[in-house]
Amino acid sequence: MPEIRKDPVFGRWVIIASERALRPNEFRTAAEGAAYSCPFCAGNEKLTPPAIYTLPDDKGSWRLRVVRNKYPALTGEVSAENRRDGIYDSMGGMGFHEVVIETPEHSLKLEDQPVEAIAGVIKTFTLRVKEIKKDPRIKYVMIFKNHGRNAGASLLHPHSQIIAMPMAPLRAVQEIEGAADYFTERGTCVFCDIVKEEAAFTKRVVGENADFLAITPYASRFSFETWILPKAHASHFENTAADQALALAGILKTTLRKLSASLPDLAYNLIFHSTPLQEPESGHYHWHIEIMPKLTHVAGFEWGTGFYINTVSPEEAAETLNSGKKYKI
């Protein structure tokens, strides 16, 4: 069973989940020349746990499935009660780990799907978070997508993951606290101000519609890092309305297609940032999506200092993405 351990210096939590090492790896299997059967493809449903949510297609099958992760980082079968062992704190790895299989087609990337299908993925995220939110033990839900081997994906088939945790991760806490400090100092939401500033400046804008803005952020940590933010203030992603899901799908498709066109063999991490589940609406925090292409590796200086060295300015990145030019890595 997985276990969650607390670092006594930083206060961050670490998940110890040895069973994750057993999950299938399409890249390793291909390198070994062994036969591979994708568990997410249509016809291989028996290779995954039963679906807990599906969207049907017009042929009596499915166009999207949500299943429990067969090799979960966290599981609902254990207790989240704190355990003390000398100076150390730990708890059972309580939570939920789900996989959203975005399409039955093995090679159909998210950005190549129709906008309506991408909206279906987004609506599924909101429905699953609302369902998970009913469990008072769960404090935070992380929705993320690893695309490509360099981004940590073990399977090529388009999919996203949902991990529900009994605490908010340190990264989210720090971001929310930073937004709260900004609100205390200036009386406004920092993300709302970013939207206004970037829409007026335009040189870091990658895409825009009536409801959302896509930008290469001013202090980008990674080359071609891109954010998507709602224009109207909203603290909880799961409250996104159905009509907004379609608008979000449109700008997400545009953004990913621009990244894919400019960056050969694109690998990326896509992460939803939102307010912890059990907290009320917040005036200082604004949910958003962060997309981080994997063009380089985080090395010693970054790990040692917490500083990031970005070799492509966000202005240059936006210009490249908007022009459709290939970036030479």
Radius of gyration: 20 Å
Helix content: 25-40%
> What is the 3D form?
globular
- What's the CATH H-level superfamily name of the largest domain? HIT-like
Q: How would you describe the oligomerization state of the chains in this entry?
A: single chain
Number of helices: 7
Low-confidence stretches: none
Q: Helix/strand/pairing class, anyone?
A: alpha+beta
pLDDT averaged residue by residue: 95
Summarize the structure.
By secondary structure, this protein is α+β, with helices and mostly antiparallel strands.
Keywords for this entry:
329 residues; alpha+beta; HIT family, subunit A; ten-stranded antiparallel beta sheet; four-stranded antiparallel beta sheet
Please render the helix and strand layout as text.
Layout: E1 3-6, E2 13-16, H1 26-32, E3 51-56, E4 62-68, E5 83-85, E6 88-92, E7 96-101, H2 115-132, E8 140-147, E9 159-165, H3 170-186, H4 190-201, E10 205-208, E11 212-215, E12 226-230, H5 242-262, E13 268-273, E14 288-293, H6 300-305, H7 314-323
Antiparallel strand pairs: 1-2, 1-6, 3-4, 4-7, 5-6, 7-9, 8-9, 8-13, 10-11, 11-12, 12-14, 13-14
Helix pairs in contact: 2-5
What does this protein look like?
By secondary structure, this protein is α+β, with helices and mostly antiparallel strands. It folds into two domains: 3-169, 2-Layer Sandwich (HIT family, subunit A); 171-323, HIT family, subunit A. It has seven helices and 14 strands. The chain has helices spanning 26-32, 115-132, 170-186, 190-201, 242-262, 300-305, 314-323, and strands at 3-6, 13-16, 51-56, 62-68, 83-85, 88-92, 96-101, 140-147, 159-165, 205-208, 212-215, 226-230, 268-273, 288-293. The strands form two sheets. It has a ten-stranded antiparallel β-sheet, sandwiched between helices. Strands 2-1-6-5 form a four-stranded antiparallel β-sheet, with no helix packed on it. β1 and β2 (13-16) form a beta hairpin. α2 (115-132) crosses α5 (242-262). The termini are far apart. The relative contact order is 0.13.
